[in-house]
Each structure stands twice: as C-alpha cells, then as structure tokens.
Amino acid sequence: MKCPKCWKTEMEKSTHKGIEIDRCPDCKGIYFDVGELEAIIEKSIGAKIEDLPRIRIGSGKQDKKSAYCFRCDNEMSTIEEPGKVRFDMCEKCNAIFLDSGELTDMQNK
Ligand SMILES: [Zn+2]
Ligand SMILES: [Zn+2]
Question: What would the pLDDT profile of 92-106 be if each residue is shown by its tens digit?
C-alpha cells in the first residue's frame, strides 16, 4: 500500500510494541489499521476518538496537506484536539495515519 501523505512511496511493514504497522520510509509516517491505535490515543489524551472534532482540510488529491487512504480510495479526515493531538483518519476503514513524531509526542505526554 502507498503512503497516504506521499502518495507514491510504498509503505513498509514494521512492528511497534507488538502491533503490526505500515511505516513510510520517506516521511516516517505510520499507518495503523482499525482499532490498533485507538487504545494508545484514548489513554494518552483521556478522550474517545469519536468525541474529537473532525476537520476536513483541502479538497482531494491536489492538496498536499490532506492524507489519502489508498486502501479505500478515500480522503482522510484530520482529527485535532488543539494542543493535544493531531492525526488523520479514514472514515471508511477507520485506519489512522500519524505523521512522523506524532506518536512519540503522544507517548511523552
Ligand atoms: Zn510518506
Ligand atoms: Zn481507508
């Protein structure tokens, strides 16, 4: 599968704390399947993912800011809790894409 952010780089299989993830060798972004990251995020911010505000940025593949789920052919939504967490989520398969460093930020809080 291709990276939701770079659009042309193939993701590489990797393992993070026993969870299988796809990592982009270019931007170091991480793609999680449904459910895999929810527990980590909900624990670190103390809120349910479904309660977080959803922000749609950009308008499709032309906008470099928006992530794109190649599995579903679907533009991902940016979910943001100001000052706490920001990530992209595919509303179709519930996969989560984190930019480089976002997971580390979360775990450090
Ligand atoms: Zn990438
Ligand atoms: Zn998807």
Answer: 988 889 887 666 666
pTM: 0.71
pLDDT grade for 60, boundaries at 50, 70 and 90: very low
In whole angstroms, what is the distance from residue 66 CA to residue 102 CA? 16
Torsion sign, CA atoms 68, 69, 72, 75: negative
Q: What are the extents of the domains in the chain?
A: 12-108
Q: Which residues surround ligand 2, an ion (CB under 5 A)?
A: 69, 71-72, 90, 92-93, 95
How many residues can be counted in the chain? 109
Tokens 């460093």, residue?
101
Query: Which ligand does the CA of 9 lie closest to?
Result: 1
Q: How far apart are the first and last CA of the chain?
A: 31
Contact assessment for residue 54 and residue 77, using Cβ atoms and an 8 Å cutoff? yes
